[in-house]
Amino acid sequence: MLKQEELVNRPEYWLETLQNEIFRQVSDYLELNNMSQTQLAIQLGVSKGYISQVMKGQFNFTLKKLIELSLAVGKAPAIVFIPLAEFTPTEHNKVASSASQTLNRVADPIEPYPSSEK
């Protein structure tokens, strides 16, 4: 098992963390707007397969696609860079940094992500 310091230094950790957050944002948007993945695909001008990949976390996003997805769900993309020395995941891998309390939230199958918009 990797130590916390080793884990946060791996690009895979951050990719998965961001994919999980994108999944949550898109899921919340679909639910709040009573939309299907197909309807979102039409809105974005992409294939249903693309949205399916997004929802399964099987896609490595370009920065442009990340921005497009963010805007499509009515969110402003914001990237915060903090020194690794200040990054300390707490219980359930949530950020405990003074720089950003919402930077990353890793999916927890037991405790679902609470939507702030409900």
Question: Can you give a write-up of this model?
Answer:
The protein has 118 residues and is mainly α. The protein has a domain at 4-75: lambda repressor-like DNA-binding domains (434 Repressor (Amino-terminal Domain)), CATH 1.10.260.40. It is built from five helices and no strands. The protein has helices at residues 4-7, 11-32, 37-44, 48-56, 63-72. Helix 3 crosses helix 4 (48-56).
Q: What is the element layout, followed by pairings?
A:
Blueprint: H1 4-7, H2 11-32, H3 37-44, H4 48-56, H5 63-72
Name the descriptors.
118 residues; mainly alpha; 434 Repressor (Amino-terminal Domain); 45% helix; disordered C terminus
Average residue pLDDT: 75
CATH topology description of the domain at 4-75: 434 Repressor (Amino-terminal Domain)
Order of helices and strands: HHHHH
Low-pLDDT runs of 5+ residues are 91-118
Q: What is the number of helices?
A: 5
Give the total of beta strands: 0
- What gap, in angstroms, lies between the N and C termini? 37 Å
Q: Could you say which overall geometry the principal axes of the C-alpha atoms support?
A: elongated
Task: State the fourth-level CATH superfamily of the domain at 4-75.
Answer: lambda repressor-like DNA-binding domains
In the CATH hierarchy, what is the architecture of the domain at 4-75 at level 2?
Answer: Orthogonal Bundle
* Largest beta-sheet characterization: none
Computed over alpha carbons, the radius of gyration is: 15 Å
Q: Which CATH class of the domain at 4-75 is shown? A: Mainly Alpha
Helix content: 40-55%
Alpha-beta content class: mainly alpha
- Tell me what portion of residues adopts beta-strand conformation: under 5%
